[in-house]
TrEMBL record:
Belongs to the UPF0065 (bug) family. Residues 1-21 form the signal peptide. Keywords: Signal. Pfam families: TctC. InterPro entries: BUG, Bug_dom1. This is Tripartite tricarboxylate transporter substrate binding protein. It comes from Billgrantia bachuensis.
Length: 323
């Protein structure tokens, strides 16, 4: 009896301490891990919404960039951090799909995190130089069929998102491109496109927004079923009867086991920041689609997305299209 009473007392003390900590949260600076380099698209978006979330949180959130391992290095620090609300992280496509698919972190799963919200989605797109001979998506596909392997397509990491998007396009249209990989992301893709190393780049329109707005590049198609407000001249894939919807996204997360009241407070603060005119207008300016999902919805969405994309990748492997 005494042992049971002591156990109950300890449990009640722990619950009370957790509740008090959540009520006072935050009492110190919060760390936000961005598993990509400073100055990139993910970094800019996370910094912007985090700055706006500080006011409703009544606290300070600082961003720390931890590069490497296709987001894996940052993920390790996030999932191993204390689940007290003082370490958060930003997840992208690679964090949710590439890292677990390629088993880059043995034993890693998104279940090791409490997902707070999805804030944006960025469909992949095909971008060509402004003076490209391909004035439409149809013209590009016709040329790729007529000259198999001659048109140079610049993707990012082999086996990652942009590679998968291109493979699906080739499978759906019977077009054949020469695939060139630029693991450094959009920056080397931009340089390659401007220098004539490649005939097209495959990434988000937002990654190339400065070149498109400057008249140095243009988009031919965006792999989504929704017309972009930022790039109204670029048609979605659905207008070409293509059922390809691929792209990146940003999800905010905390280590699994973070107290529910703290997760609720973080979700509310980031949702307020997300819904602000300042953030919404800024996203349009940088060419990114706002796409909010709260805690319950984003967890279900991640599970469904993993299931669908993993099935697609397994099918491509069976066909010998994906190694």
């Amino acid at each position: 009896m005494l042992k049971n009473a002591l156990g109950l007392a300890c449990a009640m003390t722990l619950v009370t301490a957790t509740a008090n900590a959540a009520e006072d949260y935050p009492t110190r600076d919060i760390r936000m891990i961005v598993p990509w380099g400073a100055g990139g698209g993910t970094d800019g978006i996370v910094r912007k919404i985090t700055d706006l979330a500080e006011e409703p949180l009544s606290g300070t959130v600082y961003v720390e960039n931890i590069e490497g391992g296709m987001s894996g290095n940052g993920l390790i620090q996030l999932i191993n951090a204390k689940a007290d609300g003082y370490t958060l992280g930003a997840l992208t496509y690679d964090s949710v799909i590439t890292v677990p698919w390629q088993d880059m972190l043995p034993g890693y799963s998104t279940e090791e995190m409490d997902l707070i919200a999805r804030i944006t989605s960025e469909p992949d797109a095909i971008i060509v130089p402004a003076d490209s001979e391909y004035d439409s998506f149809e013209a590009l596909i016709e040329a790729a069929k007529a000259e198999p392997g001659n048109i140079r397509a610049g993707i990012q990491n082999m086996g990652a998102r942009t590679h998968l998007t291109l493979l699906q396009l080739m499978d759906a249209t019977d077009a054949d491109f020469k695939i060139i990989s630029y693991p450094g992301g959009a920056a080397p893709q931009k340089e390659a496109l401007l220098n004539g190393e490649i005939d097209l780049a495959l990434t988000s329109l937002g990654d190339f927004a400065s070149l498109i707005e400057g008249g140095d590049a243009r988009g031919l198609i965006e792999f989504t079923d929704v017309q972009s407000q930022s790039f109204p001249d670029v048609p979605p894939a659905s207008e070409h009867d293509l059922d390809i919807q691929m792209g990146s996204f940003i999800i905010l997360a905390a280590p699994a086991g973070t107290p529910e009241p703290i997760l609720d407070e973080l979700e509310a603060a980031y949702q307020q920041a997300y819904e602000s005119d300042e953030f919404q207008d800024w996203l349009v300016d940088v060419g990114v689609t706002p796409n909010w999902l709260g805690r319950d919805e984003v967890t279900q969405w991640v599970g469904t997305t993993q299931e669908e994309i993993f099935a697609t990748m397994e099918e491509l492997q069976e066909q010998g299209i994906l190694d």
